[in-house]
TrEMBL record:
Its EC number is 2.7.13.3. InterPro entries: CheY-like_superfamily, HATPase_C_sf, HATPase_dom, His_kinase_dom, HisK_dim/P_dom, HisK_dim/P_sf, Sig_transdc_His_kin-like_C, Sig_transdc_resp-reg_receiver. The modification 4-aspartylphosphate is found at D36. It holds the Pfam family HATPase_c. Residues 139-356 form the Histidine kinase domain. It comes from Dethiosulfatarculus sandiegensis. It comes from the Bacteria. The keyword Transferase applies. This is histidine kinase. It catalyses: ATP + protein L-histidine = ADP + protein N-phospho-L-histidine. Residues 1-101 form the Response regulatory domain. Keywords: Kinase, Phosphoprotein, Transferase. One of its GO terms (molecular function) is phosphorelay sensor kinase activity.
Length: 386
């Protein structure tokens, strides 16, 4: 049987009894098992139960003697694909094997379709949210930035008047300085949020040129110097390769790297260390930002790139930084991934092509949503969108 199946193009692994079959399954992961019900040691039905417990996706065809067809029926109830009574005609067995493989392929395609449907629905929902956000952001930026400018200007005027008054009691002066400082901090934060809203909703022109990623990382290290000092966290750059030149948009990458490093500093404990690793992976460049914070719960790992999702306390984050960063990297042909363990910190890894194949125009959100709708309609009508 083994020889004849190999001649038909099948790759065959043999086992003499049940426990050996289970070891083979664990090591080589074949798709289909054909086995006798009566075997020395562990019998076929016991082996079938163990296979279905540990490898429920595997299909099993049982071979049984004419006098023990009840074992075959018991096997079907236990999850076997089918059973064949001996003597088995080879072509009949071959037909059952092909049917089992067709079932395996069909289940795989259904899983692909389900995953694709979920992915497309998420993309459609995000596209619709971003489209609505684009309309909202322009109005928000105009309506909020104007009063913010007036508040900021008025704060400066009050500070000047206060400095000219030498007769103010010291207690009043300290109280006013604290209040004005809070106003300035809040104005700065509100301005930053409106800027991030526009960055998320509007795609700014991409300017591709050659630059050194290590120099950009060093520049970001200087920019976060004050933040590091206040948080009492250090930032170090670990350059794995001397070749760190890349063709991309340095201004937009600076924004991404700055977002990731600031997030890492804020996530780190006092006295912690943030490591920025640079490496050359042939046709790709990698930079990773690792912190020594509390880590991200598993249930939040898929949500952290969604707009407005934040695990920080209200007032400490807008929930836009990672979403903006991911969008920028996707436009530049890169990707952003995260690994995290509770109590051990998180690592955000950016992978970029050394020379990205940029599209002439950024993908239009409306066109993306329409394309997703067409694919979902194909799924609903029974067509394969792949």
């Amino acid at each position: 049987m083994t020889k004849r199946l190999k001649k038909r193009g099948f790759e065959i692994l043999e086992a003499e009894e049940g426990s050996e079959a289970l070891a083979t399954l664990a090591e080589h992961a074949p798709q289909l098992v054909v086995m006798d019900v009566k075997m020395p040691g562990m019998d076929g039905l016991t082996t079938l139960g163990a296979i279905k417990k540990d490898h429920p996706e595997k299909e099993v065809i049982l071979l049984t003697g004419q006098a023990s067809t009840e074992d075959g029926v018991a096997g079907i109830k236990a999850g076997a694909f089918d059973y064949l009574a001996k003597p088995v005609a080879f072509e009949h067995l071959l037909g059952k094997i092909r049917q089992a493989f067709e079932k395996i392929e069909r289940i795989h395609e259904q899983a692909q379709e389900a995953a694709f449907r979920t992915k497309m629905e998420k993309r459609m929902a995000l596209a619709e949210r971003l489209a609505a956000l684009g309309t909202l952001a322009a109005g928000v930026a105009h309506e909020i930035n104007n009063p913010l400018a007036i508040i900021n200007e008025s704060t400066g005027w009050v500070k000047q008047r206060m400095e000219r008054r030498s007769d103010l009691p010291e207690e009043w002066r300290k109280t006013l300085e604290l209040a004005l400082s809070k106003i300035e901090t809040s104005v700065e934060r509100a301005g930053r949020i409106t800027h991030q809203l526009l960055s998320l909703a509007r795609r700014s022109p991409t300017e591709i040129r050659e630059f050194d990623l290590a120099e950009l990382a060093a520049e970001v290290g200087e920019l976060v110097g004050k933040t590091c000092k206040e948080a009492r966290v250090s930032v170090a750059v670990d350059q794995k390769s001397p070749k760190t030149r890349i063709w991309s948009d340095p201004n937009r990458l600076r924004q991404v790297l700055l977002n990731l490093v600031v997030n890492a500093i804020q996530a780190s404990r006092t006295g912690g260390r943030v490591i920025v690793t640079l490496d050359n992976l042939n046709n790709e460049m990698l930079f990773a930002v690792k912190d020594q914070g509390e880590g991200i719960p598993k249930e939040n790992l898929e949500k952290i790139f969604e707009p407005f999702f934040s695990t920080r306390t209200p007032g400490q984050g807008s929930g836009l930084g990672l979403s903006v960063s991911k969008g920028i990297l996707e436009e530049l042909g890169g990707r952003l991934e995260v690994e995290s363990r509770l109590g051990q910190g998180s690592t955000f890894t950016v992978t970029l092509p050394r020379r990205p194949a940029m599209a002439s125009e950024p993908e239009d959100l409306g066109r993306m949503a329409l394309d997703s709708q067409k694919k979902i309609k194909k799924l609903n009508s029974g067509e394969n969108p792949f």
